[in-house]
Write a structure and sequence with these properties.
Helix content: 55-70%
Largest sheet: none
Strand content: under 5%
Shape: elongated
């Protein structure tokens, strides 16, 4: 089972976490000699140690098992280390501002956010693939070296989109000394600072998206009130106008374009 391109880099970046802990353990003892099998035994099973620094020694079954385990953690890691949070929150604001309830459905918004995330993260994942994943698969570096090399492009992306005030907050909460450079900032401090920075940026974009739709709601409500139609919910009348406005200004193009330029 082989993956290629940036998706391969995304999956195997998380694989480094597993091998980093394995490589730091004590060396495995020599493989004991196999016990003689009784006559007529159809199967011989040999259990021995694996060298985690040599990917060729890891069997296909173990690779598949580790891959399935890591894939179960991908959603959480995806939200923490990529642009997914900002994108999905802004798309949620768009739907709420228009008042279309479940249109587009959650599956469509999450799928769009996922592919936009891969679009944004492609340069970073390509760098991880070239500098860490491919040398590791070729047996040129150890898992710890692959992790240390592969995490650097991710950290650089987090630093680019993390506000200094948010980073300073978590440094104070961690009771750390003032760091001299980026290398002195631990990853476990950088990740939550990046997340709240992404949420703040997403809420700012969401506020800007809400303003024109709010104006339409206010205008429709004022017209209905002046006509004495107080029992008619303004949302029923304003919804078609908001959808029409969104279509006329090519709203998806504007929203997605603004999101991509924000990175």
């Amino acid at each position: 089972m082989r993956l290629s391109g940036t998706f391969q880099a995304a999956v195997f970046l998380f694989f480094f976490f597993v091998f980093a802990s394995v490589a730091s353990a004590q060396p495995t003892s020599p493989t004991p000699p196999a016990l003689p099998q009784p006559p007529g035994s159809p199967l011989t099973v040999t259990i021995g140690g694996l060298d985690p620094s040599n990917p060729s020694q890891v069997s296909t079954g173990l690779q598949l098992l580790a891959l399935l385990t890591i894939l179960s953690l991908v959603p959480a890691i995806l939200m923490m280390l990529t642009s997914f949070v900002r994108i999905v929150v802004v798309l949620g604001f768009v739907r709420r501002a228009m008042g279309t309830q479940e249109v587009p459905p959650n599956q469509v918004l999450l799928g769009l956010a996922l592919f936009l995330t891969f679009f944004v993260m492609t340069p970073t994942l390509s760098e991880v693939n070239e500098q860490a994943l491919q040398p590791y698969l070729a047996g040129q570096i150890t898992p710890l070296e692959a992790y240390a090399t592969g995490i650097e492009p991710i950290r650089e992306f987090l630093f680019q989109h993390c506000r200094k005030s948010d980073l300073a907050l978590f440094i104070r909460l961690a009771r750390m000394e003032r760091p001299n450079d980026k290398a002195d900032v631990p990853t476990h401090v950088l990740i939550p600072a990046f997340l709240i920075s992404e949420l703040k940026t997403a809420f700012i974009i969401g506020f800007i998206i809400y303003v024109p739709f709010l104006i339409i709601d206010m205008v429709v409500a004022s017209i209905l009130l002046s006509m004495g139609m107080m029992m008619l919910p303004p949302v029923i009348i304003s919804l078609p106008f908001k959808i029409l406005l969104f279509v006329l200004v090519d709203g998806w193009n504007l929203v997605i374009g603004s999101l991509m330029r924000s990175f």
